[in-house]
Amino acid sequence: MAHIVGGFCMPHDPAITAFPEVANKHQAANIMAGFERVAKRIGELEADTAIVVGDDHFALFGPHCLPQFLIGIGDVEGPEENWMRFERYPVPNNVPLAEHIMNYGFDHGFDWSVAKSLVLDHGTMIPVHLAVTPNPGVRTIPIYTAAAVTPLLRLKRALALGRMIGDAVAAFPGNDRVVVMGCGGISHRVGTSDMGRVDQGFDRMILDMVVRGDVEAMTELDDAYVLEHGGNGAFEIRNWIVAMGAMPRFRGEVICYEPIPEWITGLGLAELKLAA
């Protein structure tokens, strides 16, 4: 059967590639080194597939269609944005495993929205470009959640979605080696009067939950609290919850954290290591 061999939580801030020069050079270099470490770890884990969980920012879906969770099972490319400072390119998909996860969800109470052709926005493409693409042969299964645009995916439903994904991978008859990546956050405010304000206390609280493997505590956070302390961009902890929920028993290890107001975000990267 297939196995989840590791996981990661990380930002997907488009400024990382679009506006690197505006950030403190040391901080920017630390974040890039963090992504390089994730890419290296994917290789060391001998992963052949990355399930990348992100969210749309009205780039792919508009008011006419707001899926709670969507899986890409066919052709994938990215980025959708033309200002990311790298050209659009095809992203290989693990179609058999993606279709299996889709069907497993249908059979276990998760009515996926499905894309047979998908152009990724920065919500998944930044992690793909910086951490997956450097590993030739590693395929990507993109998953989008309602973590940026209301109505938001409920936190406990995000956890249930992650656990279903983990069960689906374990039920797949292939020998695939899978990493799960939860992408977004941490604290940031988009389109508000206090955009650029980063809450380091909130960020470190979230990272501490990751280190403890306490995903249940993360699901207990009230959206009003998250909005007040982490900003509207911090709703993206849903993607981290999905990744943590998909993992078997794990312990978290922070790779790096940098509060970068110029990139309007507190950026944290962590590895979810399988417990012995």
Structural account:
It is a single chain. This protein has 276 residues and is of the alpha/beta class. It has one domain: LigB-like (Protocatechuate 4,5-dioxygenase, Chain B). The protein contains 9 helices and 9 strands. Strands 1, 2, 3, 4, 5, 6, 7, 8 and 9 form a 9-stranded mixed β-sheet that branches. A hairpin with a 4-residue loop joins strand 8 and strand 9. The longest helix has 20 residues.
Enumerate the spans where pLDDT stays under 50 for 5 or more consecutive residues: none
Helix coverage percent: 25-40%
The CATH homologous superfamily name equals LigB-like
Task: Please identify the structural class as seen in this structure.
Answer: alpha/beta
- Taking all Cα atoms into account, the compactness measure Rg is 17 Å
Measure the end-to-end span. Answer: 20 Å
Largest sheet: 9 strands, mixed
Give the helix tally.
Answer: 9
Shape: globular
Q: How many domains, in number, for the residues?
A: 1
